[in-house]
């Protein structure tokens, strides 16, 4: 049986956090053997909000190192940087010309991010079309992402179906979002009603970053917002969102069931013990990743070499697909 093809991406905006790890990266690593994998550091997506050029350049290599440190194996998966494969930007234009504007204006991520910008860039609105291309140019069957990206994968399906019906053939594979059962939506420690996000990590106490030192992880959990009660149980009560988030993180990290998690904290003397218990399992999970990251970042030439191999493999798949699109759409291919 041929393996299902997987595509996923992550922005090199620094500050990779446990939400990214539990919601996405960990699941990419876990299923690497069963699938044919393409993982992409989506630097072009990062440009949709203003970036410092030097920081973006650093963060792109750093993100590749984080993915390798987390267990992405270049012998099993193609790991590459989006801008190294020109088919993405080229094919995005072609998809722009079949995507109705109204579909993009309805995207919740666009509305949220646009509300935070003084001047909204065209690229921010077009972000989901670039993402659709990432997925469609590889004929990916599955797209493992956190909950917040579900709407973008659904839009990708709509764009694929529209193209297929406009040009009268099954040209694009219509992909499925794969959302994990646990860890799909880790909330901010400072505000458990908003998702943990890279762009908010400048605020102290918002996120646990993958590269945080143990002391910092413990400190951030100790500061996490909870409530004035002392009951340590899973709950849908909005007033208990902080405790629920901490228990959810513990559950995702340990793989235990909800009743096992609650049993682990049955003797806790209060939220202090809960925070310490969660911090300990997170520190244990992240320490080997941080150590491998530090090792990999000592050899940027080797990182660049791995990314060049990845770009070549990715180009071999996506450029022929974009060329075929051009042909279907009526463009003359150069001889
Ligand atoms: P930004 O805040 O800059 O938009 P982000 O934290 O959402 O960034 P992305 O690079 O956009 O990070 O997302 C990478 C992957 O991590 C995606 O699959 C996304 O769904 C997942 N992800 C992001 N935040 C969370 C979260 N809080 N919980 C679970 N998964 C998440
Ligand atoms: N928008 C995604 C990142 C992303 C992506 C993709 C994810 C860009 N292209 C293709 C899956 C497949 C995000 O995580 N914010």
Structure description:
- By secondary structure, the chain is mostly helical.
- It has helices at residues 18-30, 43-46, 53-69, 87-96, 101-105, 108-115, 122-136, 150-166, 214-222, 241-254, 258-264, 271-296, 300-329; strands at residues 5-10, 36-41, 77-81, 142-144, 176-178.
- The protein has a three-stranded parallel β-sheet with strand order 1-2-3, sandwiched between helices. A two-stranded parallel ribbon has the order 4-5.
- The two termini are 37 Å apart.
- The model has no long low-confidence stretch (mean pLDDT 96).
- Adenosine-5'-triphosphate (ATP) binds at residues 10-11, 13, 19-20, 23-24, 145-146, 148-149, 184-186, 195-199.
- The site of adenosine-5'-triphosphate has 19 residues, from helix 1.
CATH architecture descriptor of the largest domain: 3-Layer(aba) Sandwich
Oligomer class: single chain
Which strand order does the major sheet show? Answer: 1-2-3
Number of structural domains: 2
Extract low-pLDDT stretches: none
Main β sheet profile: 3 strands, parallel
Say how many strands there are: 5
- Overall pLDDT level: 96
Count of DSSP helices? Answer: 13
- Radius of gyration (Å): 21 Å
- Quickly name the level 1 CATH class of the largest domain: Alpha Beta
**What is the molecular shape?**
globular
Q: Strand-residue fraction?
A: 5-15%
Distinct small molecules? adenosine-5'-triphosphate, L-tryptophanamide
Helical/strand content category: mainly alpha
Q: What is the helical fraction, as a range of percent?
A: 40-55%
What is the CATH third-level topology name of the largest domain? Rossmann fold
Please write the string of helix (H) and strand (E) elements. EHEHHEHHHHEHEHHHHH
What is the name of the CATH superfamily of the largest domain? HUPs
Beginning-to-end CA distance, first to last residue: 37 Å
């Amino acid at each position: 049986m041929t393996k299902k093809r997987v595509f996923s991406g992550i922005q090199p905006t620094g500050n990779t956090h446990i939400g990214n790890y539990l919601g996405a990266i960990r699941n990419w690593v876990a299923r690497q053997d069963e699938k044919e994998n393409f993982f992409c550091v989506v630097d072009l997506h990062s440009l949709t909000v203003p970036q410092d050029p030097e920081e973006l350049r650093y963060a792109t290599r750093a993100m590749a190192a984080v993915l390798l440190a987390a267990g992405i194996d270049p012998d099993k998966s193609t790991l590459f940087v989006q801008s190294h494969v020109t088919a993405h930007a080229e094919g995005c234009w072609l998809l722009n010309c079949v995507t109705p504007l109204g579909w993009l204006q309805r995207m919740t991520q666009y509305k949220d991010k646009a509300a935070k910008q003084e001047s909204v860039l065209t690229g921010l609105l077009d972000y989901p079309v670039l993402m659709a291309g990432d997925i469609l140019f590889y004929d990916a069957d599955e797209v493992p992402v956190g909950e917040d990206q579900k709407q973008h994968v659904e839009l990708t399906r709509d764009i694929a179906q529209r193209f297929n019906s406009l040009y009268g053939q099954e040209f694009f594979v219509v992909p499925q979002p794969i959302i994990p059962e646990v860890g799909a939506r880790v909330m901010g420690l400072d505000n458990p009603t908003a998702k943990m996000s890279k762009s908010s990590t400048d605020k102290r106490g918002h996120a646990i970053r993958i590269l945080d030192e143990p002391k910092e992880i413990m400190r951030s959990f100790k500061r996490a917002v909870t409530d004035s009660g002392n009951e340590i149980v899973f709950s849908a009560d909005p007033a208990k969102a902080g405790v629920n988030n901490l228990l959810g993180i513990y559950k995702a990290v340990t793989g235990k069931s909800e009743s096992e998690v609650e049993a682990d904290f049955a003797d806790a003397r209060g939220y202090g013990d809960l925070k310490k218990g969660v911090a300990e399992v997170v520190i244990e999970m992240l320490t080997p990743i941080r150590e491998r990251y530090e090792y990999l970042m000592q050899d940027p030439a080797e990182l660049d070499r791995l990314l060049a191999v990845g770009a070549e493999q990715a180009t071999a798949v996506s450029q022929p697909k974009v060329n075929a699109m051009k042909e279907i759409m009526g463009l003359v291919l150069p001889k």
